[in-house]
């Protein structure tokens, strides 16, 4: 593990008006989330809470298949930032294909979305019986004429658009094994 949360970590709005996390020892983590998309007021300084730490470890545990430890930490911290500070979103499901099998995801689960010819990998940050707030782990994608979803971008979608990547991996293992 590259980083372990401690009581010195602090969230704040940086000079570029984006959410930042002071990790101590002259280390800063910059999220891609501008202040206008956040519920917190500038200036602000809030500690990395016990709930943040729990989310961080939940996300890290589910991100085991992500290529590098630093990318896992980056995804987990961005997930915590979205869960804690992102403004509520309306679902934007029309960009994604409906799935035949309904999937009810769990927090931190890696799921897939089909956007036409492109398949996206997402991490579930928050879930309810009908919709989930997700963070993109895929490269930037243009979803429509006016909507781009960057890596670590947040989007809310109906659960009938999601499919489980974990179930797909288990099926592949059964076929090979």
TrEMBL record:
<comment type="similarity">
    <text>Belongs to the ZapC family.</text>
</comment>
<dbReference type="GO" id="GO:0005737">
    <property type="term" value="C:cytoplasm"/>
</dbReference>
<dbReference type="InterPro" id="IPR048373">
    <property type="entry name" value="ZapC_N"/>
</dbReference>
<feature type="domain" description="Cell-division protein ZapC C-terminal">
    <location>
        <begin position="88"/>
        <end position="167"/>
    </location>
</feature>
<dbReference type="InterPro" id="IPR009809">
    <property type="entry name" value="ZapC"/>
</dbReference>
<comment type="function">
    <text>Contributes to the efficiency of the cell division process by stabilizing the polymeric form of the cell division protein FtsZ. Acts by promoting interactions between FtsZ protofilaments and suppressing the GTPase activity of FtsZ.</text>
</comment>
<comment type="subunit">
    <text>Interacts directly with FtsZ.</text>
</comment>
<protein>
    <recommendedName>
        <fullName>Cell division protein ZapC</fullName>
    </recommendedName>
</protein>
<keyword id="KW-0132">Cell division</keyword>
<dbReference type="Pfam" id="PF21083">
    <property type="entry name" value="ZapC_N"/>
</dbReference>
<keyword id="KW-0963">Cytoplasm</keyword>
<dbReference type="GO" id="GO:0000917">
    <property type="term" value="P:division septum assembly"/>
</dbReference>
<dbReference type="InterPro" id="IPR048372">
    <property type="entry name" value="ZapC_C"/>
</dbReference>
<feature type="domain" description="Cell-division protein ZapC N-terminal">
    <location>
        <begin position="3"/>
        <end position="87"/>
    </location>
</feature>
<dbReference type="GO" id="GO:0043093">
    <property type="term" value="P:FtsZ-dependent cytokinesis"/>
</dbReference>
<dbReference type="Pfam" id="PF07126">
    <property type="entry name" value="ZapC_C"/>
</dbReference>
<keyword id="KW-0131">Cell cycle</keyword>
<keyword id="KW-0717">Septation</keyword>
